[in-house]
Design a protein that fits this description.
The protein has 446 residues and is of the alpha+beta class. It is 56% helix and 12% strand. The protein has 19 helices and 12 strands. Strands 1, 2, 3, 4, 6 and 7 form a 6-stranded antiparallel beta sheet that branches. It has a 4-stranded mixed beta sheet with strand order 5-11-10-8. Helix 2 (17-31) packs across helix 3 and helix 8 (134-152) packs antiparallel against helix 9 (163-178). The protein starts with a helix and ends with a helix. Residues 1-13 and 441-446 have low confidence and may be disordered.
Length: 446
């Protein structure tokens, strides 16, 4: 009922569009957790929805009122068969964070908790507890959304958005995110992939204290990257040189982290918005460091939280995405259009016109790059072109592209000189070298 007026008015909303989009976002926020998650996901799909609607939906916060600490205690008892007091020395009933799916409590392990996990007694941990009843609420929300999407297909202003298809694409990752055991396994895999990268870390799940609705993990200290983004105005006016160096280091580290996930690991964190990133500085002091040299240098470390949504590609998809990124790195608009069409199930009404317009977009992107601006604006125009030509690309490709755009957006705020295209070319070159060496090795052993 909350959404009905917006759907009916959509064909005639142009004259008051900003107000209509803002009120639509507010209505979705009032509808429930699945609607909020869908709106956040839809805000990244500029290939489907106009840019102003995406911008309005992006303002939605993945937050909700916390449930009482007593309910968290009951959930933990049901999950592990022992009361909170037996597993933890301390347990803060007031959560440190609360999202639409779960909330996080700070705690310290008791002697029994330490014995079970192999950690030290008193170790500080984060206890993520799913909101009671959220599974049923999400299922209810999906039923309502499916019914609404079916009706919206008949409205002239909304039919082209193919809301039924977008709902189907969105449902699977959200259902996985509800099961906290999936997030624990994702964290384990990320830790394995980044075991040799000291500058990037993830919360460590405390097995066996992992259940469908409870996840105990290491408590990661750090400063929200939002703090660095909000202080950028000070840096532009001079700012602290040490703080500026930290920002530049984090920007470089963020870009390299994503590109490693995409090009090398094929295991991608699909929710890299600034709220899921912490930053901390750690002193690096070699064992041989003499005291008379003064304090050792500090090293920036990036902490990635909330690994419930990930993307893993099949070999064909990965090959196409690598070709797509190569085309972007080379600023080849025609090749980008060709790769996008490979990801489209329905093709394109006019492929020649699509390729021609995409080439024009990338010519503009070269101007943007040469003018020292970020590439994000150019990519946004690229996605607008995809939407106008009704090229319905796969969710997998858009998840990777969106992650890249989001990361390039905040990293370019921290470091205006960063060049993600240069980093992309460098990593793709290394990946091709590794692939050539592997092929040579296979020839030798066979």
């Amino acid at each position: 009922m909350l959404l009905a007026p917006f759907c009916l008015l959509s064909p005639w909303s142009d004259q008051w569009r900003p107000s209509w989009a803002a009120r639509l976002a507010s209505a979705l926020e009032d509808c429930g957790p699945a609607f909020i998650k869908w709106a956040q996901w839809a805000s990244t799909r500029q290939d489907i929805f106009p840019r102003d609607i995406c911008s309005a939906l992006a303002r939605l916060q993945d937050a909700s009122s916390p449930h009482p600490g007593s309910l968290s205690r009951s959930v933990i008892l049901a999950a592990f068969g022992v009361p909170v007091e037996e597993l933890f020395q301390t347990f803060e009933d007031c959560p440190v964070a609360s999202g639409s799916i779960a909330q996080v409590h700070k705690a310290t392990l008791s002697k029994e908790g330490a014995r079970r996990t192999g950690q030290q007694e008193g170790c500080v941990v984060a206890v993520k507890v799913r909101h009671p009843g959220v599974v049923g609420v999400v299922e209810r929300d999906f039923s309502m959304m499916a019914a609404a999407a079916a009706l919206m297909e008949y409205l002239p202003g909304l039919a082209s958005f193919r809301l039924g298809d977008t709902l189907a694409q969105f449902r699977a990752p959200l259902v996985e995110q509800i099961d906290l055991r999936v997030e624990a396994e994702n964290l384990r895999r990320f830790a394995e992939n980044f075991r040799e990268v000291r500058e990037v870390t993830f919360p460590a799940p405390m097995f066996p204290l992992v259940a469908e609705d409870v996840l105990v993990e290491s408590f990661e200290q750090g400063l929200s990257i939002l703090h660095l983004l909000n202080s950028e105005s000070e840096a532009s006016a001079g700012g602290d040189p040490a703080n500026n160096r930290l920002k530049q280091a984090i920007a470089q580290l963020g870009c390299k982290t994503l590109l490693k996930m995409v090009v090398k690991d094929n295991f991608i964190h699909a929710d890299l918005h600034p709220g899921n990133l912490l930053v901390r500085e750690e002193c690096v002091k070699p064992w041989w460091w003499p005291g008379w040299l003064g304090p050792p240098h500090s090293q920036a470390r990036l902490v990635l939280l909330d690994a419930g949504m990930v993307m893993e590609l099949g070999q064909d998809q990965r090959d196409h995405i690598l070709d797509f990124f190569k085309a972007i790195a080379q600023m080849d608009g025609n090749k980008v259009a060709e790769e996008l069409l490979k990801f489209s199930n329905d093709g394109c009404p006019n492929p020649e016109e699509f390729e021609s317009e995409m080439d024009a977009v990338f010519q503009k992107m070269r101007v943007i790059r040469d003018a020292g601006k970020t590439v994000t604006d150019g990519v946004a125009e690229c996605l607008d072109t995809v939407r106008r030509h009704e090229v319905h690309v796969s969710a997998e490709l858009l998840a990777v592209v969106t992650a890249t755009v989001v990361l390039e957006g905040w990293s370019s705020v921290l470091d205006r000189d960063i060049n993600i295209l240069h980093l992309l070319k460098e990593l793709l070159f290394k990946a091709e070298q590794m692939q050539d060496k592997m092929l040579e090795y296979l020839k030798v052993i066979t």
